[in-house]
Automatic annotation (TrEMBL):
Lineage of the species this protein comes from: Eukaryota, Metazoa, Spiralia, Lophotrochozoa, Platyhelminthes
Domain of life assignment: Eukaryota
Keywords: Membrane, Transmembrane, Transmembrane helix
Residue ranges of the TM segments: 6-29, 41-61, 177-196, 217-235, 255-274
Designated name of the protein: Uncharacterized protein
Length: 312
C-alpha cells in the first residue's frame, strides 16, 4: 500500500511537471503576442504555472527515499515533511487571491488607486505572505515528531503533551486557516460579487466577461477547495489525534497529500481545456468610460441593496 502510494505520487508529480511546462510554453507565446492591456492576467497565469512546477518537483523530491544525512539532516527533514511542497501551495493560493481581487478592482472600481497595481504593494504582499509562510511551515514539525515509530516514542508526552504541544497545535490550526480557509473565502467573495455585477449588465462584452469569470472561479477556487479539503481536514484533526492516527506517513495522510497534489496537476489541464490556446483575457479589455460609470453605479446600488437587506 505504501509503495503503491509512493509510486503514484512520483508518477503524478512527473506528469504534472510536464503538463505545466507545456502549458507555460503556450501561455508565454500568447503573452508575447498579446496587447499591453491583456498581459497582466497572462503574467499572473505564468506565475501560477511556475509555482505549480515548483510544487510538483518538491513533491517528487519528498517521495524519493533520501538518506537522512543527505544533503543535510535539516534539508532532508524539510523534504520529508513536504514543507517545500506546501510552501508552493501557499504561494499558489495567494497568487489566486491576488488575481481575483485585482480583477475585481480592475473591472468594478478601475478609478481606485490600490496597492494591487503598484510594484511596492506587490512586493509588500509577497513579503507578508513569506513571513506568514515561515510560521505555518513550523506546523509540519509536529507531523515530523508524530511520524516516529511508536515503539521508540513511548510515552509520547514530549510531542503530544509536552511544553511545545500547545504551540504546535496552534500552528497547525493557523496553517489551515492561512493556507486554505482564508484564501477560499476571499476568492469566493471576490468572484461571486464580480459575477453578480456582470450578470446585471447587458451586452456581449459583459456576457463574455461573465463566462471568463466563471471559468476563473472554477480553476482558481472550486478546484482548489476540492483538491485540498481532504488534506486540511486530516491536518486539522492531527491536533486532536494520537501519534498513530494521522501521522506523516500514515495511509490516510498519504492519500490526502495525493489529492492535494492533484491541484497543480489538474489546474493547467483545465486551463488549457477551458481556455483557448491563444487565450486573450477579456477581463483586461479596456471598457468605455460610460461602461465604467455603469459598473460603478451597479456596484453602489448592489451595496445599498445589501445594507437594506441586512437592516430588514
Amino acid at each position: 500500500m505504501d509503495r503503491a502510494l509512493t509510486v503514484t505520487g512520483i508518477l503524478l508529480a512527473t506528469v504534472g511537471t510536464v503538463i505545466n511546462i507545456i502549458s507555460l510554453i503556450f501561455v508565454s507565446r500568447t503573452t508575447c503576442q498579446a496587447a499591453t492591456f491583456a498581459k497582466k492576467v497572462l503574467y499572473i497565469i505564468i506565475v501560477q504555472h511556475c509555482i505549480d512546477i515548483v510544487a510538483c518537483i518538491a513533491y517528487l523530491l519528498s517521495s524519493v527515499g533520501l538518506d537522512e544525512q543527505f544533503p543535510s539532516i535539516f534539508t532532508c527533514r524539510i523534504l520529508r515533511t513536504r514543507a517545500l511542497f506546501w510552501t508552493a501551495i501557499n504561494y499558489r493560493a495567494y497568487i489566486n487571491v491576488y488575481g481575483s481581487l485585482w480583477q475585481h478592482v480592475r473591472i468594478i472600481y478601475p478609478f481606485w488607486s490600490t496597492v494591487l497595481n503598484r510594484t511596492e504593494g506587490c512586493l509588500g504582499l509577497f513579503l507578508l505572505a513569506t513571513a506568514a509562510n515561515i510560521l505555518q511551515t513550523l506546523a509540519f514539525t509536529r507531523l515530523s515528531d508524530l511520524s516516529a515509530d511508536q515503539s521508540a516514542c513511548i510515552p509520547c508526552t514530549p510531542c503530544q503533551t509536552g511544553e511545545n504541544a500547545g504551540i504546535y497545535s496552534f500552528l497547525v490550526l493557523y496553517s489551515t486557516i492561512y493556507r486554505f480557509a482564508f484564501p477560499s473565502m476571499a476568492m469566493f467573495a471576490s468572484f461571486g460579487y464580480l459575477m453578480q455585477v456582470l450578470s446585471d449588465c447587458d451586452g456581449k462584452v459583459y456576457k463574455k466577461m461573465y463566462k471568463e469569470t466563471r471559468k476563473n472561479l472554477f480553476i482558481d477556487t472550486v478546484l482548489f477547495v476540492i483538491c485540498l479539503s481532504t488534506h486540511e481536514a486530516l491536518f486539522t484533526l492531527n491536533v486532536f489525534a494520537s501519534n498513530m492516527e494521522y501521522g506523516l506517513r500514515t495511509a490516510p495522510y498519504e492519500v490526502a497529500s495525493l489529492l492535494a497534489l492533484g491541484y497543480p496537476v489538474l489546474s493547467p489541464c483545465f486551463s488549457m481545456c477551458l481556455r483557448t490556446t491563444n487565450y486573450t483575457p477579456v477581463l483586461e479589455a479596456v471598457l468605455r468610460p460610460m461602461d465604467y460609470q455603469k459598473l460603478s453605479k451597479l456596484a453602489i446600488m448592489w451595496s445599498k441593496y445589501e445594507r437594506q437587506k441586512r437592516k430588514s
